[in-house]
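Me: I keep going back and forth on a fold encoding question. No explanation is needed for now; the record alone will do.

Assistant:
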Amino acid sequence: MTGTQRDRNIKIGSGKKKSTSSNESTGWSRPAEGRRETAPVQRNTAPQSSPRRNEPRRSNDNRRGNSNKQGNRQGNRSPRPQQDSPLMEEQWARVIDHDLANNVIVAVSESKLLLCRLKPKAGIDQLLVTARVYIGEDSSKRAHIAQVLGMTNLGRLANHIRADLPLVVQIFIEENEKHFIAAFFNVAGNMSLKQHAFELLQGVGNKKAMQMVEARGSTGFESLTALNEACNIDAGELLAKRFLSELEDRNIQPRLLDLLLPVKA
């Protein structure tokens, strides 16, 4: 056997063959294969009913029962106490107007100067302006008034009634001059360093107020007539105008209506 044949017949041991698979490293990255599919999780697909649907519906009877209960509750509530009218404390009033056609009297009370409407008794003659009538709770003393209809205000009064009101209030002041002399004109003092209480009266300035203080002196005024002559004013008219301005505007301060009324006998 020659050398060449020998070389051909020589068997070469089987070593590990080089893998020719696609996993051989070539320097390229493996293409993305995506996420592996996983078995779907079985969920409970039974429809869940909302709790509102499962709740029993209220029947009309229940609703009616509830409404009846609410009605009973409201019926059981005690009514609110009605506020007493300020006129219940009044005893006397002064007539401003007596309307025979409508059978109504408009008057102003003496205690707090409250405007009110009154129903006269049947058959009485027409009452004059400034006439004094009893409006208290004692019906036996009511010679002219059958019923107190209620309160009113300046805005509801006719023009001729508004025109007579200052005179009625002035006459009431003059008839009770001792009270107003003692409660105001003889004791009024300074409200501040720049204003005297007399300046609350219409048309009275600081100079006039000082003149009134000087005329008052230490003894005071004996009457409205003496005050008018000493100071050359009409004190009853000025005080009546102040009262009326406070009736028109509730925000005016200080309020002489609250300070000087009711009249003390």
